[in-house]
Amino acid sequence: MHLFRNILFYTLLFFISFSGLHAQHINSSFLPKKDTANIYKQMFNDRTDDLMENHPADDIYNHIWTSERLNPYKIPIDSLPDTVKIDCRHFTIPVHGIVTSDFGPRRYRYHYGTDLRLNVGDTVVAAFSGRIRIVDYEARGYGHYVVIRHENGLETVYAHLSKVLVQLDQNVKSGELIALGGNTGHSTGPHLHLEVRYLGNAFNSASLINYHTGKVHNDTYLITKSKSFYYQQAVAQAKKAQTRVKYYTVRRGDNLGEIAARNGTSVKNLCRLNGIKEKKLLQLGQKLRVM
Asked: Is residue 7 predicted with pLDDT exceeding 70?
């Protein structure tokens, strides 16, 4: 009788344990899946949460880590919160050099960084502590360049380097040597092209860094859609305008009247677009803007 009770007890115990595990397995299959498409919306709309203090950089970037593209995130400005607080303590100026070109529009394109003068072989250091996300080379662009994702949520780009001294996925400290300055890629002279980005979107680093003193303006920087990314609308408008631009190459026997009629415009408009007078003699092969 005693043996029968023991067998019954352990049988019931096994059945209860098995049922609990089975139920747990079944219930887990009904757990809601994480909606990665809306992760930024959920994070940014949480007004009770301090984005910078409670979300490490990996969470802000939705755990996207790739060395394939500079901006793999494709997060539109409208999806960003109105303000984001960035911890700027422990900053180190990457290069002590004179600014040779500011952030802003150039003749044919937008310049998304700040250029700092240096000599080939000068040391370049990390602005903040972080992890190396990209080490790459672009013959017609950045030349040798490095991208670091920082613990405070920013990413920095260091371009036109002569030699890279770090490797992918390497952790670096603020002020640590990462490269030597150079003149590689699309460059008109030795300099460091420095970019500061948040979720792939560049902003004017001069609003964060005082390049005269080599220090940040404040220990905390506030990223705002209206001030930090003010240029985005102008860039979009410029790109839209470029798609409407049309040119005509002057052929033998052409005159302004014929060119205007052929392209659905007027002689007066051709003169305005090209800064010429109606009696201007046209040259064979000359390009005229007609739209």
From this structure: no
Number of separate domains in the chain: 2
In a domain, 17, yes or no: no
- What is the predicted pLDDT for the residue at 245? 72
Give residue 256's domain range: 245-289
Which tokens sit at 65? 């880590």
Query: What CATH number is attached to the domain comprising 255?
Result: 3.10.350.10
142 and 221 share one domain: yes
Q: Which of 40-44, 79-83, 185-189, 220-224 has the lowest mean pLDDT?
A: 40-44
What are the residues whose beta carbons fall under 8 Å from the beta carbon of 255, sequence distance 6 or more?
Answer: 282
Does 107 reside within a domain?
yes
Q: Distance between CA atoms of 211 and 116, rounded to whole angstroms?
A: 9
Say which residues have a Cβ less than 8 Å from residue 18's Cβ, sequence separation at least 6. none
Distance CA 124, CA 146 (A): 11
Whole-angstrom distance, CA of residue 87 vs CA of residue 154? 10
Helix, strand or coil for residue 111?
strand
Say what the pLDDT of residue 230 is: 75
Q: What is the rounded average pLDDT of the residues 138-157?
A: 96
13: which 2 tokens? 């115990």
Indicate whether 176 belongs to any domain.
yes
User: What are 157's strand-pairing partners?
Assistant: 147, 195
Distance CA 223, CA 59 (A): 18
Average pLDDT in the 120-127 region? Answer: 98
Nearest alpha-carbon partner for 142 in 200, 94, 205, 184: 184
What distance in Å separates the CA atoms of residue 148 and residue 127, rounded to the nearest whole number? 9
Helix (H, G, I), strand (E, B) or coil at 156: strand
A 10 A CB-CB count for 198 gives: 21
State whether 95 and 232 are in the same domain.
yes
Q: What is the average pLDDT across 262-286?
A: 87
264 part of a folded domain: yes
